[in-house]
Design a protein that fits this description.
Layout (H helix, E strand, L loop, with lengths): L5 E5 L7 H8 L3 H6 L1 E6 L1 H7 L7 E4 L12 E6 L15 H19 L5 E4 L4 H6 L7 H9 L5 E5 L4 E4 L9 H4 L2 H17 L7 E5 L14 H15 L3 E6 L1 H9 L5 E4 L2 H12 L4 E5 L5 E4 L16 H20 L19 H6 L1
Parallel strand pairs: 1-2, 1-5, 2-4, 3-4, 5-12, 7-10, 8-9, 8-10
Antiparallel strand pairs: 6-7, 6-11, 11-12
Helix pairs in contact: 1-3, 4-6, 8-9
Length: about 350
């Protein structure tokens, strides 16, 4: 691996804050100390985001081999050249939706071919994505589809806490029906493998959150802990994973932040993300585990209400870039070696239940 890996950064929706946070993040020379950023996007959108007093320059390139990674010059692969009416901050257009997805597709293609070390994505509008002809729920499902990844996990991470989710975007009332022993087991496996391969942890400590208050109180408050969660953990333990729980969520996250665990497996979206965002509202990173490539993302949306006003915070993008570099370096160290933890990431690919297809 090169001393400074090439990190592909997709612009997101050009009408959102993606272009602005890219300009701000790449105005920080510290980013160039660790990587060679390559932006995939629209030249007009990036130019509009450069403030009058900035000395930053846009340098168009044909591909990763031309990226120089020189502070003050943003290497940009022009994936599209949209009309001015498609670049008005705060007013998304379908043409912009197609462009934002073309950027992601090209970045993933280059990552699969190992022309870049990782992909970092800026925020997209999911409804706009579908209007543009991409029938996916979001970045994660789109990328997993084009890379052929069958089993993947969403992790949100900051310096003090990492949370992997068993279920993601679904109604709270559906969570108990979506939880299965196989799904929880797979989440533990994918998380454990990634902690070893991408985070450099030799024996990662994984804590599993209970679904019900007091971890079900031996079935008094619900059967899921005894019937679903514990069997998944027992199986993971037999496979060599250092997994503990299920712990009541009201105490677990405090223990994790104190350093007792390297990651928490949460049963549903808000169970994991409320404590995560309480600690890391501005600097959390969204990571897709289980892909053949490295993909990190900002942990926020397009923020149309502040787009073009110059007030967007680039902290999450900076952390997403740093996380991508860390993961690329760790993955480079392990190379093609098999983890001490057994590779079970695809063991349930052929057994996925209908509800799991709907979830993804």
């Amino acid at each position: 691996m090169n001393a400074r890996p090439i990190i592909g950064i997709t612009m997101g929706d050009p009408a959102g804050i993606g272009p602005e946070i890219i300009i701000k993040a790449l105005g920080d020379g510290a980013i160039y100390d660790i990587c060679s950023p390559l932006v995939l996007g629209d030249p007009g959108a990036l130019e509009l985001a450069i403030q009058d007093k900035s000395t930053l320059k846009i340098r168009e390139v044909d591909g990763p081999t031309q990226a120089e990674g020189i502070e003050g010059k943003i290497d940009l692969m022009p994936i599209c050249r949209l009309e001015k009416e498609c670049l008005v901050p705060g007013f998304p257009r379908v043409q912009g939706g197609r462009a934002m997805m073309d950027c992601v597709a090209k970045a993933v293609e280059m990552a699969v071919r190992k022309e870049i070390a990782a992909v970092v994505t800026c925020p997209i509008n999911k409804a706009l994505m579908q209007q543009a002809g991409y029938p996916y729920e979001g970045h994660t499902q789109f990328i997993s589809g084009i890379t052929g990844a069958r089993d993947y996990v969403m992790m949100l991470a900051g310096k003090r806490l990492r949370v992997a989710l068993v279920t993601i975007h679904c109604a709270l009332k559906d969570v108990p029906f979506l939880l299965t022993t196989e799904r929880i087991f797979r989440t533990i496996v994918v998380t454990g493998k990634a902690l070893f391969q991408d985070f450099g942890l030799k024996d990662p400590r994984i804590a599993v959150a209970a679904l019900n208050p007091h971890a079900g109180e031996e079935g008094l408050f619900g059967p899921e802990e005894e019937e679903i969660i514990k069997p998944s953990m027992e199986k993971a333990s037999r496979e060599g994973y250092n997994v503990k729980g299920p712990f009541p969520a009201d105490t677990l996250f405090f223990r994790a932040v104190q350093g007792q665990f390297d990651a928490v497996v949460a049963m549903y979206h808000d169970q994991g993300l409320i404590p995560l965002k309480l600690l890391h509202f501005s600097d959390a990173v969204n990571i897709t585990l289980g892909l053949p490539i490295i993909r990190t993302s900002v942990d926020h949306g397009t923020a149309y209400d502040i787009a073009g006003k110059g007030v967007a915070d680039p902290s999450s993008l900076k952390e997403a870039i740093r996380m991508a570099v860390l993961m690329a370096r760790n993955r480079g160290k392990t190379g093609g070696q098999r983890s001490e933890i057994r590779d079970q990431a695809n063991c349930f690919s052929s057994e996925r239940k209908p509800d799991e297809k709907k979830q993804k």
